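Lecture 7 notes: from sequence to structure.
We start with the chain below.
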Amino acid sequence: MDQKITRRTAVAGALAGAAVLCLHKPGVFAQEATPATTSGSAAPAIPGYPMLNVSVTDSAIEVSVNPIPAGYVLLNVTNNSKDETGAGILGPGEGQTMDELMAAAATPPADPEGFPPFLYDATILGGPGSLQPGQSAQALVNVPAGDWVVFPEGSQQPAPIRAVESPDSNTTAPAAALTLTLGDFYFGGLDSVSTGSQIWEVTNEGTQPHMVDIAKVPEGTTIDQIMATIMTIDAGTPTAGALTMNQIQDLSYGVLLLSKGQTMYLQLTLEAGTYAVLCFVTDPATGQPHAMEGMINVFTTGGAAATPTS
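Predicted structure tokens for the same chain:
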């Protein structure tokens, strides 16, 4: 089955009314995939934690329970819509109230297709992204007590949730196979990656929000080739060394968004092969996607991360 590339611009935002936060992100590495599990109550990929089932339909986000226990919560997101999507948990930034966050979100951005400025200051706890219709994915996020929203990649109204201290609260982090660090502008921790089912600790040690897109690419792919592919998509004309559209297989193992200082856990299963990781959040200083500023890495399961060679 051919895999297709479309351009993922930086995550873009919208507001539907004065009290509603919405998020929209067009796809970049979109795949024609066989739908995965569609059950809203799938078995936990990381057992031992409270689960919040989230169903994204064409018109709404539905959550299985509210309030939720404060602490680590397994966010199980199922895409029941017709478009690529994902979901995460978002709330006010440091020193900010929810009303102030919504007021900032209500301010129209200078570039309607660009990264919404309010998301640089919000607290984004993470969540799975890049889900094709019918697919499900899980992410373990640490939700402090307070008011939050579960937000989609589309224009659906986010679902408000409250996290409360509870006998079911679990504040113990799981064991992880590796720590993927997100910085300005790099991915670290991919020097040795195993095959099979595993848990990644994902930590944003940068100063800006970051996202994680993971795609399987041909053996021998270099960072320069990935950059050439992005430039080809951006310009609409071939760039020397670029991969063709059927050479990239997008995986439904991504991080929608993660704020600075935040850590979440991602469960994924990797076959033997070569993979690229990219971030397409926009740098406010340059207006460029982070990938164009070097936030690309290529790794091979069982081997070392690639270096930028042609």
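Points to note: Residues 1-40 have pLDDT under 50 and may be disordered. Residues 211 and 233 are 19 Å apart (CA to CA).
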